[in-house]
Amino acid sequence: MPESSAPTRVEHLLPPGFQPVPVELSLVVPALNESITVGEFVDWCREGLRCAGVSGQILIVDSSTDDTPGIVLARGGEVLRVPKRGLGRAYIDAIPFIRGKWIVMGDADLTYDFRELAPFVAEFRKGADYVMGSRFRGTIEAGAMPPLHQYFGTPLTTWILNRIYASRYSDIHCGMRGLTREALARIDLKSQSWEYASEMVLKAARLNLRIAEVPVKFYKDRDGRLSHHRRMGWLSPWIAGWLNLKVMLIYSPDSFLLKPGGVLFGAGLLLSLTLGVVGPFTVAGVGINLHWMLLGIACTILGYSCVQVGIIARIMHGLRSGIAGSAQRLLTYNRGMIATGICMLVGLLLLGSLVWHYIHAGMRLEQISHHGILGLLLVMLGFQTFGFTLLLEMSQRVLVRREPSLP
User: Fold this and answer.
1) pLDDT tens digits, 292-324
2) E strands along 39-87, which residues?
3) What is the DSSP track for 230-283?
4) Which residues contact 169 (CB under 8 A, 6 or more apart)?
């Protein structure tokens, strides 16, 4: 096949006389102008499948303008020509064309050793849903990874994800990874670019998939080839890191908002109610007065907001139910409106008392009214409850969940 322009539509190309059949393992690998390495890479894949003792599919998801697709077809691999829309999107485009019950992903640049597929297959046979490669538990050839990535970027982002998601990965950015067809359907990949890597590992943890980790070998680029990060400039790795951090936070606001928010809300509400009902008091020589009540109000509002955002996040990403499911069952529209009405009514009565005393004192406040301040808090909580109730009700109408399917 001669060099061609970038594809503008999805097209599945097969070697002459090839008949697709079901296989055990599909190797799904994006490629962009990899004519230097892709031929040998297909040979590596064939050797890896033979050594692992499995039937396999070699599917190269290609957006090249060079002869990459022609080389793949000449070596007996399949080519899925797709528009250049991002690395994550390449995997999404490939889903309908995957024939294996197991899938291994990676790069076509000979940096990952696809001759060693047996450890992945062994974990699949043991029942693993998601098998993560680890360069740090395997080997990293000298010069294969920039020191900034090897000793700072990758360990740091791996540590962050493990803390947020209670996982035990050693290398979340390893490009060589495997999963079952069912796991891929459950993960329901959405990321279009580099951040797909973090989305997969964090969803695997959130969905309680059976996760295994295997050592892999990581090689430096072949002579004459530049990595995609280097092709895109020095800023590319930082952009990739930022995108991966973004997706970690997008799928995890509940992790760092729900519990702290609950503590803030409980402590703040207790302090505000106590001062609002009994007024200022002293504890161990410390005066608990208006300033403490203002602190209590701030904690109550902030904590309530954190809990609401955390619950909405869980409903939207659909990875865990728990408190989100309980909130949807307990805070129905009717109950939410009743709670809103009670908070608003009591709050307005307390504020009305404050206004009455203010008017009868000649438009002056001679002393602080803790009851009035408590009323203001109840009005704000009532309005927040009203908005939260509407969001929960809308979520049941707008966020219609559909089980992703694979052909």
Assistant:
1) 999 999 999 999 999 999 888 888 877 766 676
2) 56-62, 78-81
3) HHH-TTHHHHHHHHHHHHHHHT-HHHHHHHHHHHHHHHHHHHHHHHHHH--EEE
4) 132, 134, 158, 161, 162, 201, 213
The domain spans of the chain are 11-250, 253-398
- Take residue 75 and report the two structure tokens written for it: 């070596």
CA 310 to chain centre: 14
Question: Closest Cα to residue 68, out of 35, 37, 43, 106?
Answer: 35
* Token pair for 357: 């005393």
Inter-residue contact 288 to 281 (CB < 8 Å): yes
178 has which bridge partners? 104, 131
- Is 11-250 in CATH node 3.90.550.10? yes
Predicted TM-score (pTM) of this structure:
0.76
CA distances to 90, 141, 264, 282, 299 from 289, rounded to whole Å, are 60, 65, 19, 8, 16
* Sign of the alpha-carbon torsion through 94, 99, 101, 104: negative
User: Is 32:7 a contact under the CB 8 Å cutoff?
Assistant: no
How do residues 99-117 score in pLDDT, each as one tens digit? 999 999 999 999 999 999 9
Edge-to-edge strand order for the sheet containing 56-62? 11-13, 78-81, 56-62, 23-31, 100-105, 177-180, 130-140, 211-218
Which run of H or E residues covers position 133?
Answer: strand 130-140
